[in-house]
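Sequence only, no structure available. Ideas?
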Amino acid sequence: MEDSSVEMSSRSSEQSETVPEKPKTVPKSVPKKRKPTKEPKPISEQITPPAPKKERFVKLYKPPKEIAIGASIAGRDKAKVRIDRVFVLGFLAGAYIAFGGLFALIIGGGMPGVAATNPGVQKLVFGGTFSFGLMMVVIAGADLFTGNIMYETMAFLDRKITILDLLKNWGIVYMGNFVGSVFFAFFLGYLTEFLDNDPWLSFVQNLAEMKVNHYGWGVLLLRGVGCNWLVTMAVYLAVCAEDVVAKMAAVFFPLTAFVSMGFEHSVANMFFIPVGMMYGADVSFWDFLWKNLLPVTIGNIIGGSFLLAAPYWYIYLLPSKKNQNDSRDNGKEEPKHLNCFSV
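Reply:
I predicted one. Tokens follow.
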């Protein structure tokens, strides 16, 4: 009985081993519901409108106090330039002024009929064409002695440079202006023979002789004062302007005025008188220096430093007793009205 029960259990175990396993049922994947397709928008609605522009303010000009601050900072920066570069910048400025001088001689000096019947118009044309030289100085960047009188005086009074810095800059720029003007007078004013014939020949000779022999020291000194009051005003207004066209307009009117009125500019005379001497004017080199250039230079210094730089320093840069904090240090922004517009 026991054997049969063992057989029965072994058979049942064999049967259980041979029974195939049922395959596992994999759950069917539920199909995803498709989103209903939207109809395409018309092209006019597909184009996204541009984002609205943010308003930004563009200054048309600097207010008066900012002009004074800018002039003082420019004077400080000019005093820090290396000596050789200052000389080259002075050379360029002398040549640029000579360019304007030659332009004025050819246009204004070629109008003898107008000068005889209406001399005011001839002087106006002469002055307007001469202003081209200072435009190049201001916009292209060069160091003109008469302009640096204002810049360095503002920086010195504002305690940004020393008196030695001021005198060194003036001296190097003055020499550079002289070399540039005489260089241009000889190579581009004389050797080119632009003024070889009348009416230009007689005009440039008479101009050089009149500047040296006709007026005394006192008259030339005062004419130098008036000249550089206007020339430094032109440079000062160019600091105020924020674009090229405005800078040109700022230079044009004061320059045209000083030349038309007959004031004396030391750097301009470094071209007009030497080129007249080269074309045969009865002027010696010593007479040129003593009877014109020296008194005119002194007058230019007085006009640019005492009549323009010093007053604006006193008004805008001299700290008052009530408020020792300058607007350059208090972090306040300049108001955006009156001197700016939105675009």
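The chain has a mean pLDDT of 85.
Hope that gets you unstuck.
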